Amino acid sequence: MKKIKIAYIGGGSKAWARVFMKDLALAKDLSGEIALYDIDLPAAELNRRIGERINAHPNTISKWDYKVYPEIGTALDGADFVICSILPGTFDEMEGDVHLPEEYGIYQSVGDTVGPGGVLRAMRTVPIYEGFAREIKAHCPDAWVINLTNPMTACTKTLYDVFPEIKAFGCCHEVFHAQEFLSCAVHELMGVPRPHRSEIIIDACGVNHFTWITEANYKGTDLLKILPEFIDKFYEQGYCEHVGSQPQDFRDNPFRYGNKVKMDLFRRFGVLAAAGDRHLVEFLNNGWYIKDKADAESWLFHLTTVAYRKQDRLDKIAQSQRIADGEEQIDVSHSDEEVVELMKALLGLIPPKVSNANVVNVGQMPQLPLGSVVETNCVFAHNSLKPVTSKPLPNDVNALVLRNAINIENTYYGIKARDLNRIFEAFINQPLCSSLTVAQGKELFNKMLAATEAYLKDFYPYTRL
């Protein structure tokens, strides 16, 4: 049994921590300590109690020692792995990120990666991650650091820029959903039971939430060649890859979608966008798929309101309390996430594993700037992560990806310099802001800065243009 220490920054997580803890409980030959650190200490304590409930579950294979730490340094001391999963600010700040732009005709379906909301979220998050990187360097410089926080690209960039020797990568499950979508195509067109997504072998590249599949194979069948038939069949009604879900479910569940944007982009460009439609549309001009709420509905996806997120958070807190108090049973079963499997590969407990990850571009995507953070396949092996050189994107798709990659780089370096003018130039160049005049953009930017000022004033010398 391999014993390790995992430091969880954001250990009061309301959702992902529980998924992670259950996967760890089912990880054969792996155990040790999970050090929970969170600025919300009671939330971390609640997760410690949930961890004890998981330890007592009959399905549990590996029991873990859950400890809450009030200081980040002691949580990190001696850690073999560091998980970073935080909400930068509160949902009150995110309300400004997502809904203030609506006054200017800009709608966002997520608002946490790019677009005006993504820029403001990065302004809050990057300074926090600068501190994380310094603490990791001081307390556990040899640890593997796994980022789960959005904006993924900017967070991972910060870790590497502050601590160049860091062993860090960003994990995202959006590509998995695209593999599931392709599994559905196999089932519908080839008349075989729906295969597990791991049987769909892909080459994917891009930036997080805007990654593209340029090759897809199932047992020798080129899936991109047969995909047009599938799209012709389901384009109008949509198709949802989530088991038990229908395309129209987006009306009641804002995290569902009908993949109509994904199918439309494939018809236009011949390669498959890997993220869900809610993310994809935010990387594209706002007149294409999201000019207003009705437009979003016509493309079979929903605008996730922050009011919904606030209620969902309250529901999750209440459920966590019930589980911790023993009033509700917790189901200990495997998720479809890969973080624990990647950890096992890095520890040498399983054979090398290929999965998509966000790391610094050292040439695996020659079309994008070296030093920027890109998402491609990577090989995870014993204490080793090696990015795989991707197949080139078609030029028209690369033009879309490159614009966003450069915007993210410019946003990051503007934040690093604490230069609001430089950040604004990245803000106004967001595809979702393409309908704004410069004057409108400045007015909106200043309003959004004011809405999140409490989380900026300690890091920026001024908080208005």
Please provide a written account of the structure:
The protein is of the alpha/beta class and 465 residues long. The chain has a domain at 172-291 and 299-304 and 337-465: Alpha-Beta Complex (LDH C-terminal domain-like). The protein is built from 17 helices and 13 strands. It has helices at 16-25, 41-55, 72-76, 91-99, 115-139, 152-162, 174-190, 223-234, 260-269, 277-280, 286-289, 293-298, 306-324, 339-346, 395-416, 420-428, 438-451; strands at 2-9, 30-37, 64-69, 81-84, 144-147, 167-170, 201-207, 210-218, 221-222, 272-273, 353-360, 373-381, 384-387. The strands form two sheets. Strands 7, 8, 9, 10, 11, 12 and 13 form a seven-stranded antiparallel sheet that branches. The relative contact order is 0.14. The model has no long low-confidence stretch (mean pLDDT 97).
Descriptive keywords:
alpha/beta; LDH C-terminal domain-like; seven-stranded antiparallel sheet; globular
Short summary of the structure?
With 465 residues, the chain is of the alpha/beta class. It has helices spanning 16-25, 41-55, 72-76, 91-99, 115-139, 152-162, 174-190, 223-234, 260-269, 277-280, 286-289, 293-298, 306-324, 339-346, 395-416, 420-428, 438-451, and strands at residues 2-9, 30-37, 64-69, 81-84, 144-147, 167-170, 201-207, 210-218, 221-222, 272-273, 353-360, 373-381, 384-387.
